[in-house]
Amino acid sequence: MDPSLFLPTASIDEAADFFIKKIQEVNPKIPTHLIERAFRYSWEAHQNQIRKSGEPFLAHPVAVALILAEQRLDAITISAGLLHDVLEDTPVTREEIQEKFGEEIAVLVDGVTKIKSFQMKSHQERQAETYRKMLLSMAKDLRVIIIKFADRLHNLRTLKYLDPERIKAIAAETLDIYAPLAHRLGMARIKWELEDLAFKHLDWEQYREIVMKVVASRSERETIIDGFVFPLRERLEEEHIETTIVGRPKHFYSIYRKMQERNKPFEEIYDLLAIRVIVGSIRDCYHVLGIIHSIWTPIQDRFKDYISTPKSNGYQSLHTTVFGEKGTIVEMQIRTWEMNQIAEDGIAAHWLYKSGGKEMSKDDHALVWLKNLIDWQKDLTDSTEFFEFFKIDLFHAEIFVFTPKGDLISLPKGATILDFAFAVHTDLGLHCIGAKVDGKIEPINKELKSGQSVEILRLNSKKPSIDWLREVKTPKARSAIRHWLKTTGRQESIDLGKKIVQASYRRLHATTSFSDHIPGLLQHLGINNADRMYELVGSGELAINKVMDFFQVFKIKKSVPSNMVSRIVDTFTGRHRPGILVGGNEDIMVRFAKCCNPIPGDAIIGFVTRGRGISVHRTDCVNVALFTGDMERTIEVAWENSEQKKYIVTLEITGSDRTGLLQEISRVFSEFKVNIIEGVIKTRGQQARCTFNIEIAHRNQLKPIFRSIQRVKGIENVSRVKEYISEDRKEAGL
Description:
Blueprint (H helix, E strand, L loop, with lengths): L11 H15 L6 H13 L13 H12 L4 H9 L2 H4 L4 H8 L1 H9 L11 H18 L2 H15 L6 H21 L3 H15 L1 H13 L1 H21 L4 E7 L2 H11 L10 E7 L2 H14 L1 E2 L5 E2 L12 E6 L5 E8 H9 L1 H9 L9 H13 L5 H13 L2 E5 L5 E5 L4 H8 L1 H5 L1 E6 L2 E3 L11 E5 L16 H12 L1 H19 L11 H8 L4 H9 L5 H10 L6 H14 L6 E3 L7 E3 L11 E5 L5 E5 L15 E2 L1 E3 L7 E10 L4 H11 L3 E10 L2 E10 L5 H9 L4 E6 L8 H4 L2
Parallel strand pairs: 2-6, 12-17, 13-15
Antiparallel strand pairs: 1-2, 3-5, 4-5, 5-6, 7-8, 9-10, 9-11, 14-15, 14-16, 18-20, 18-21, 19-20
Helix pairs in contact: 1-2, 1-3, 2-4, 3-4, 3-9, 4-7, 4-9, 6-7, 7-8, 7-9, 8-18, 8-19, 9-11, 10-11, 11-12, 12-14, 13-15, 16-17, 18-22, 22-23, 23-25
């Protein structure tokens, strides 16, 4: 559009008429009354403003509106494009926009407006909050991001008038945020132009060199494309398949990325060409694929069926790469017209042609990622953390994994079993203990690959720990774990801290109530409230010794007679007053170490871990030596009288191998109503070695079981396995 139309010497009527004609050229059927009102309002609001290029500021919103019109968007979106800068760059308020143009346009204009508050600590925080605001606005109306892309496109087209540092910053932000976001939302046409323009401003020399080489090879490229298109078109006509075939080189930034990733010059990048075959139906897509493979040899591992398995942004197409004459390599993309529209325009096409409205559809593949992103950001209060994970999530390549029912779950490359569990359902993730991956049991941190079938194994008593944050890659999983740790996990730390503090205070045999000392204790520790103190003790961040030091410093009075009486009673009755009772029905954040598997009756010791509660070990566990020197975190524990819980014990049985041996051993377990979790028998010559994992409630149950097994013919030895599974600090609960 001619900038002179927007100069003070041009009349507003003349400019409005000319602009409306331009809009009608692009979309003749669009109603223009609202658009003209928005044009005149924007003219008045920006009347005295000039861009860095020297042209009137109105040239920018007009250009944005035309980009939106070219995408065949509605009058409301085009009007919002005309008004998108009035809140940010003029005194106009949101209330005025709402009063004059309605709530719908006010939401769109506000959604693309940057946050102006300077109360935040840094530019990055303001930027992160602006992105967050934009995402939340997108949830209300998808056209927010479409307007933002049009705004960014025109800014990139006119970027040369800014300072070099500002140019680099905008171009880098485009490659970091806006181009990947366009890709995530399936808007390929926008993505390509954003990338090429940003590349042009970031590295002009590389950009110019690639453009020159692409232009110089144009005739050669057309010859190669014709060599594929002509024989394919002939065959398709013979098969009576109506089609449109288009050949093109890859985009400039795409070529540059290939050169960088493969560390090769332009001349050695052979897959620079793509031929798109557009047909009328899905059936024709697969028919064409068969014809292509009958004419040319396909390259193994380069076939992708995105029709049966769409990308998370809704993209559907068949991709195959084939060898032509003289070793030429070309990628073929086969799709329907609807798939092609969605591939190029993404959510714009979905909004216009699919849902018929601005609301997000729950089943729309192109919007699942956006919905998940909006969900997980709710629990992130730190702007910098949000910004980093937002960028990371944008760039992840995808893998596709199946549930046992055959449902497809899309995950970022590098995702683990724990990520998969949270992707299926948050509750499943919170209680995940592992999974069967293609039938094989794997731990929660096992990295998944495309095509695998995953069945999550869960245990209701399993709870997240802070260590889980190292095992997950997806923002959804990370957000759910953090939320649990801040809410349920925090309350469990408080409850555990109370038990530890109260048990330690009881051992002082003080004459006064603990609650009498809380105000002074909190002041001594420099903590605001009692719950925070209990939380710090329960999470292992505050050693109980430091809490008890207060009572030593202030010499709290003790009840000497009761202390003496209690000691005498304990001596004669064999009773002992432990710090913490474990093994009952309410083991708050108590974990029984896997390295030694303690059971009731074993002598035990506890250790307050950081963020994972109390880790309980047998006193003869080799890992005890790793932490007994740290008395501040060592805690006295004892078994609570409870027969309801079951504990796993491993028994090793050796003897002479014979027919019926396993049956007789199993009969013993059955007589004592012992459940066998797992059993393994290995034989060598005439000797048999059996290992059983069984469930029992107390150590005393083992004695009669041992005696009965020893009576079995040929049995030489029965013992509880004392071979420790792991000696590393993580397994020990440190």
